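Annual report, structural modelling task.

Input specification for the manganese (II) ion complex:
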Amino acid sequence: MRELTAVKDALKKHQIELPSWAFGNSGTRFKVFGQPGVPRTPFEKADDAAQVNQYTGAAPVMAVHIPWDKVDDYEALAAHANGNGIRIGAVNANVFQDDDYKLGSVCHPDPRVRAKARAHLLDCVDIMDATGSRDLKLWFADGTNYPGQDDIAARQDRLAEALAAVYARLGAGQRMLLEYKLFEPAFYATDVPDWGTALLHCTALGDQAQVVVDTGHHAPGVNIEFIVALLLKAGKLGGFDFNSRFYADDDLMVGAADPFQLFRIMHEVIKAGALYPGQHVPPSPPPRPTEITATSAGAQPPGIAFMLDQCHNIEPKIPAQIRSVMNVQEAVAKALLVDADALLAAQRAGDVLAANAALMDAYNTDVRPLLAELRAELGLAPDPVAAYLASGYGAKIVSERVGGTAAGWGA
Ligand code: LRH
Ligand code: MN
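The model returned the following structure:
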């Protein structure tokens, strides 16, 4: 069993990346309920993201989405964020909201539209150079609604061509993160629908191309931690878009709908030594000669991006982001408490119940006192949500942010 100090040290090194768009107005096709005090600019989004980091101490990065976060001076935006103790993270491209993209973007049958989409992706790499971001995050809404509408294989060739052109533009240390999604807005075939398709394209591209697992992008019942374990073994897990769902891509707070799934996912990440760069995995007892070692820690290059991708359609946005970071921390703390030796011994002995118990004991551990202790050690309030609510920041932004246009998806 890991010492509690080791658990706290690991938690101190684990960072969560916030989505700028979670601070703006969002909704469903039925209604976007505007909220007072919502940011009007990416600078104000960074101010709100900095609040989440101020009270959790675990979210010093904000991902941006282009053009939702388009500014004249990206260095200035990065400097503003740095001035608030955070940095600009992944740059998310957006080739899913322009009229030209009705039949797709990089997979569109019309080469003129494909060229337009590719130009946007390349612009996003220029923005990464300006913000100092490492990751270009690519999610394509591309797909078809009816059988025969377009050629499935031809669309894959178009996708591969566009990805190769953008991959060639990446600088040293920059990565391309390819996100898959089963369906929506396409309802017959999505061009990057699953981890296999994303992995095939990323493997063909090279080491700087990795897969993003958005926890809301799978068919009901899919074992996501299985996919995570495989991508880790392949060294191709670039990041997560954490959220939770009861039905489809609900984008609810991570851990709200299925905290046990989040725990199982983080267990695989920790077992592979991928929680943070340089995470040490205690060597497991040497395998009996007949055995093939389960996972070779170290296959996965360091630096998984633990991003949130959520929409707070009805709940106050900053407290919801704080709660979400706390939910991830709780899952990580529980997963760090798994007695790896007891688990391995039970697995090797074929002791099904003991092996399951090793995981459930950790999962059923109340880690909230440990996290309150950790926050105290960091000079933070034990309850970040309560501390934020008591700060008056919420009322301040409602009174200050009058006029202008509240940020949103602009869909
Ligand atoms: C698509 C998605 C993708 C984004 C968007 C905000 O459903 O998960 O990550 O770009 O949400
Ligand atoms: Mn996502």
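Residues 139, 179, 214, 241, 309 surround manganese (II) ion (ligand 2) (CB under 6 Å).
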